[in-house]
Amino acid sequence: MSAGIGADSMHGNRFRHNFLTALLLAPATVWLVVFLVLPFIAIAVFSVGERAPEGGYQAAFTLAQYANLPARATAFWNTMVLAPVGALACLIVAYPVAYYLALQVPQRWRLILLALVVIPFWTSLLMRTYAWMYILGGRGIPALLAFVGIEDVRLINTPGAVLLGIVYGYLPLMILPIYVSLERLDRRLLEASADLGATPLSTFLGVTLKLSLPGVMTGFSLVMILLLGEYLIPTLLGGGKVFFIGNALVDLFLQSRNWPFGSAIAITLVLVSVVVLIVANRISNRVAGARRVDLI
Amino acid sequence: MSKSYRDGLPISPENFVDQLMRLKRGSIGRRDFLGLTGLGIATAVMAREIGIMPTPAFAAESLGDRMSIATWPNYHDPQTFENFKKDTGVAVEVNVFGSNEEMLAKLQAGASGWSLFVPTNYTISTYKKLGIIEPLEMAKLSNFDGTQEDPRFTSEGTIDKVIYAVPKNWGTTGFAVNTKKLTKPMTSWKEFWDTAMAEGDGRTMVHDYQLTTIGNALKYYGYSFNSLKQDELAKAEELLLKVKPHLFAVSSDYQPGMRAGDAWMTMCWTNDGAQLHRDIPEIAYVLGKEGGEIWTDFYAIPKDAPNKPAGYALLNYLMNPQVAVKEHLANGAPSTDARVNKLLPKEVLDNPILYPAADLLTPLEFGAAATLTDPGRAELMARFKSA
Question: How far apart are CA A121 and CA A115, in angstroms?
Answer without folding.
Answer: 10
